[in-house]
Amino acid sequence: MIYDISHKTLYRYGAPVSQSHHVMHMSPREVPHQTVRRHSLLVEPAPTSRIDTVDGFGNLETKLAIEDDHTEFVIHARSTIDVHPRGERALDRSLAWDKLQPSLAATHGQNFEVL
């Protein structure tokens, strides 16, 4: 199934801001059941610097610095994603919920309780 996703965020400041730094997670990532066909990220005002990295969890991260006076900050992320069906879950190989507490207690100590 193909999804077209648009997310727009607008910040309005009460007074002009001369410098700002931002960290965003606005870009979809490739995973076994998801293909990113297109992605764009529009930022206004235009950033002075932009660094695209991957965080510790594998998520795409964008770091921006803006060094011009501005009273608004706009982020518009647009993506086209192709989501593929996931295979059947092997529920017979997973731990039943009523076996969870004894398993966690054995790993984390007898005082561990699942509520």
Discrete helix count: 1
Radius of gyration: 21 Å
- List how many beta strands DSSP finds: 6
Tertiary shape: elongated
Mean pLDDT level:
89
Structure notes:
The chain is mainly β. The protein is 8% helix and 51% strand. It is built from one helix and six strands. The strands form two sheets. It has a three-stranded antiparallel β-sheet, with no helix packed on it. Strands 2-5-4 form a three-stranded antiparallel β-sheet, with no helix packed on it.
Question: Can I get a quick summary?
Answer:
With 115 residues, this protein is mainly beta.
Features:
115 residues; three-stranded antiparallel β-sheet; 1 helix
Sequence-ordered SSE layout with sheet pairings:
Layout: E1 2-17, E2 20-24, E3 34-44, E4 49-54, E5 60-66, E6 70-83, H1 100-108
